[in-house]
């Protein structure tokens, strides 16, 4: 038995040593941004840090807990000179991080007062393959929208510089959330991307649909009254917010009809139930003919 145990244990110890060494490297918090609904953005720098779109890191803040490591998806783009995460304050550890960064104080905080942060990573995810397809469907549910912040930022930077070598030609983006106000930082990103594409006369590059799955009667009345306005009353985007859940069968059939003979990447960051639905639709709407349309499903679950 020991012959079978020694090998894996040796590899495990090596992996722990590498993680310990990487976690000891100095990380500098360059900026802390407070977003609405108790969401903070940490912008950080670390020597030799290289990332791809959609990857994630493990974060430890000794001022909050000396042992706890928590995973966070990177919301920055590889083209930026820093890496960032968005943290929603929903528990004891995130509350401690919020206070340690001085976000509970009104006055401006000096950089040297910010807590020390240990970072391990980045680690790969399915979202890294986005730029290998000409057409992609991005589906984010709630906080699962964060990996696509990195993707869309990277697309924005590529279009700012030179998009001629970009294989990706069309993005269908779906965002399902109960309360868009909790992710206003992401709506701001969509507004920037929307304006950028219009300036470059390529507004058709990004098609996005935002589905609000939770609202009350007073909100519904308010939405109806302002439905005719040029911009959406919730997000400020030209694309109006939809209510309920998408009809995935219709969406897949429509996209398949618009891109015959294509390999379409379907990327999800969301719950397991939604993953099962999208996987079944990807299979049922893919043609048996190798020259036909094929949906390639990729998922991240939380």
From TrEMBL:
- Asked if the keyword rRNA processing belongs to this entry, the reply reads no
The record, for CDD domains, names: NOX_Duox_like_FAD_NADP
Q: Which GO terms describe its molecular function?
A: metal ion binding; superoxide-generating NAD(P)H oxidase activity
User: Where would I find the FAD-binding FR-type domain in this sequence?
Assistant: 19-129
Q: Which UniProt keywords apply?
A: Cell membrane, Electron transport, FAD, Flavoprotein, Glycoprotein, Heme, Ion channel, Ion transport, Iron, Isopeptide bond, Membrane, Metal-binding, NADP, Oxidoreductase, Phosphoprotein, Transmembrane, Transmembrane helix, Transport, Ubl conjugation, Voltage-gated channel
* Membrane topology classification: Multi-pass membrane protein
Q: Cellular location of this protein?
A: Cell membrane
Name one process (GO BP) from the record: monoatomic ion transmembrane transport
Q: Which reaction does it catalyse?
A: NADPH + 2 O2 = 2 superoxide + NADP(+) + H(+)
InterPro entries found in the cross-reference section: Cyt_b245_heavy_chain, FAD-bd_8, FAD-bd_FR_type, Fe_red_NAD-bd_6, FNR_nucleotide-bd, RBOH/FRE, Riboflavin_synthase-like_b-brl
* Cofactor(s) needed for function: FAD
> Which cellular component, as a GO term, is one annotated location?
NADPH oxidase complex
A Pfam family annotated for this UniProt entry: NAD_binding_6
Principal place of residence: membrane
Q: What does this protein do?
A: Catalytic subunit of the phagocyte NADPH oxidase complex that mediates the transfer of electrons from cytosolic NADPH to O2 to produce the superoxide anion (O2(-)). In the activated complex, electrons are first transferred from NADPH to flavin adenine dinucleotide (FAD) and subsequently transferred via two heme molecules to molecular oxygen, producing superoxide through an outer-sphere reaction.
Q: What is this protein called?
A: NADPH oxidase 2
Q: Which species expresses this protein natively?
A: Lophotis ruficrista
Question: What gene makes this protein?
Answer: Cybb
């Amino acid at each position: 038995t020991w012959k079978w145990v020694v090998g894996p244990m040796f590899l495990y110890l090596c992996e722990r040593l590498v993680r310990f060494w990487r976690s000891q490297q100095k990380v500098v918090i360059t900026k802390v941004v407070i977003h609405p609904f108790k969401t903070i953005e940490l912008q950080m720098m670390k020597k030799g840090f290289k990332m791809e779109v959609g990857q994630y890191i493990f974060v430890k803040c000794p001022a909050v807990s000396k042992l706890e490591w928590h995973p966070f998806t990177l919301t920055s783009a590889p083209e930026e000179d820093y890496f960032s995460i968005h943290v929603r304050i929903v528990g004891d550890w995130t509350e401690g991080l919020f206070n340690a960064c001085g976000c509970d104080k009104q006055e401006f905080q000096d950089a040297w007062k910010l807590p020390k942060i240990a970072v391990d990573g980045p680690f790969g995810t399915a979202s890294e393959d986005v730029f290998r397809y000409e057409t992609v469907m991005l589906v984010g549910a709630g906080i699962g929208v964060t990996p696509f912040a990195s993707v869309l930022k990277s697309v924005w930077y590529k279009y700012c510089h030179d998009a001629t070598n970009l294989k990706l030609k069309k993005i269908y983006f779906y965002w399902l959330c109960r309360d868009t106000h909790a992710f206003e930082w992401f709506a701001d990103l969509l507004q920037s991307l929307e304006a950028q594409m219009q300036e470059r006369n390529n507004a058709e590059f990004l098609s996005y649909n935002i589905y609000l799955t939770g609202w009350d009667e007073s909100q519904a009345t308010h939405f109806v009254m302002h439905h005719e306005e040029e911009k959406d009353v919730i997000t400020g985007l030209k694309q109006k917010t939809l209510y309920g859940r998408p009809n995935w069968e219709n969406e897949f059939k429509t996209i398949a009809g618009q891109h015959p003979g294509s390999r379409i990447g379907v990327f999800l960051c969301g719950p397991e139930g939604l993953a099962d639905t999208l996987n079944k639709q990807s299979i049922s709407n893919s043609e048996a003919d190798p020259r036909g349309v094929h949906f390639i499903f990729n998922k991240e679950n939380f």
